[in-house]
Amino acid sequence: MFDRANFCRIAPFGAYVFFMVLEDVLLKFGWEANDLRMLYAVKITVVIGLLWTMRSAYSELHWPINSSFRTWVIAIIAGILVFVAWINLLADWMVMGEAVGFDPRDNNEMDWFLVTVRLIGAALVVPVMEELFWRSFLMRWLAHPNFLAVNPAQVGVKAFCITAILFAIAHSLWFAGLFAGIVYNMLYMRSGTLWSPILAHATTNGILGIWIIYTGNWGFW
Predict the structure, then answer these.
(1) Cβ partners under 8 Å of residue 132, min gap 6
(2) CB within 8 Å of 112: residues ≥ 6 apart
(3) Using alpha carbons only, how large is the chain's radius of gyration in Å?
(4) What is the pLDDT of residues 88-132, one digit of tens each?
(5) Strand partners, 110
(6) Cβ atoms 119, 204 nearer than 8 A
(7) What is the β-pairing status of strands 109-110 and 105-106?
(8) 190 Cβ contact partners less than 8 Å away, ≥ 6 residues apart
(9) Per-residue DSSP letter, 133
(10) Burial of residue 165, with CB atoms counted within 10 A of its CB: 0-12 exposed, 13-18 middle, 19 or more buried
């Protein structure tokens, strides 16, 4: 399970989850959310450091020279559709728990440093880190332990469904997360390149971030 190929895709995701758990624990021990505003910047810095350090292991991030323009258009459209789903699938039964959210304002003044860090993290770092873990590693590993030899198009229904369900459970908006997981899975399987779901994921998170800033719906962060 923990050979180098596996570890390099699990470690950045694991670090991200560690900081999420740490934040929850600190909040339960009486820390104020305002006291933890810089924790996200630390989290993203650690993830970037791990991704950069282990970059030589990510063969699936080699740029696909044979991919068509249509592949990228479909990925962007898919990302927009996931964004629309994310802000609309909000019925009580579609939500699990309560998200803390992130309010970058300080005395009603926007902290643009924190906003910038959040946008960069959500739109540029998280899509790479999560797609390496969820799609490239987990979905293919569930199909066969030697996941690097698995053609994304050959992933079976069982691995597809388990990955989508776990991706959903990892988000408080679990139903929107399930929809996103299915869409990103299909993009990877149909395109054969991890850059397709990465682009879709980045589109979703980027538009969502801009929408959050514009509308002040900080709970979505």
Answers:
(1) 9, 12, 13, 51, 58, 60, 61, 194
(2) 104
(3) 17
(4) 999 999 999 877 688 888 888 899 999 999 999 999 999 999 999
(5) 105
(6) no
(7) antiparallel
(8) 153, 196
(9) I
(10) middle
Q: Name the pLDDT band for 1 (thresholds 50, 70, 90).
A: low
- Give the C-alpha separation, 143 to 162, whole Å: 11
Fill in the DSSP letter of residue 105.
E
End-to-end CA distance of the chain: 32
DSSP 7-74: HHHHHHHHHHHHHHHHHHHHHHTT--GGGGTTHHHHHHHHHHHHHHHTGGG-GGGS--TT--HHHHHH
DSSP label of 134: I
Residue with tokens 């924790």: 39
C-alpha closest to that of 199 among 55, 82, 66? 82
- Largest CA-CA distance found in the chain, in angstroms, rounded: 53
C-alpha distances (whole Å) from 30 to each of 27, 33, 35, 39 are 5, 9, 10, 16
Q: Across-strand partners of 106? A: 109
Cα 218 to Cα 39, 47, 118, 135: the distances in Å are 17, 23, 12, 28
